[in-house]
Design brief:
Length: about 120
């Protein structure tokens, strides 16, 4: 049986390496901008991860949702905080977000039960 967290991270790492191996300056700058945007600033990392999660859900990007769920988990956010953010995303995005909400809950549950 495969682990959805390991599967996602392995694939993401593999493909990021492949993409960056092209040495495309624009792509490298976008990756760098993304990394730097989610560092502590006026807004703390927890807030930024929740903002990223909401935007990703509204935009219906499952990979982005997983990425930000992991960020939320690593920042120590509680289930209730993540659930409230996903509720806001569903309110703003509408019912078309519900399939992504299902997968988000499934992934969050996997994060919560993953052995440390």
């Amino acid at each position: 049986m495969t682990n959805p967290i390991d599967d996602f991270n392995t694939y993401r790492s593999k493909m990021n390496e492949r993409i960056l191996s092209d040495n495309n300056k624009l792509i490298k700058r976008i990756f760098n901008l993304d990394t730097n945007a989610f560092m502590d600033g006026v807004l703390d990392i927890k807030t930024k991860e929740l903002l990223g999660l909401v935007a990703s859900a509204v935009l219906r990007c499952d990979d982005c949702i997983k990425y930000h769920l992991e960020g939320c988990y690593k920042q120590g956010l509680k289930h209730e905080e993540v659930a409230e953010a996903l509720g806001i995303a569903t309110l703003i995005g509408g019912t078309i977000v519900i399939p992504h909400l299902r997968r988000a809950y499934e992934y969050w549950d996997a994060l919560q039960t993953k052995p440390q």
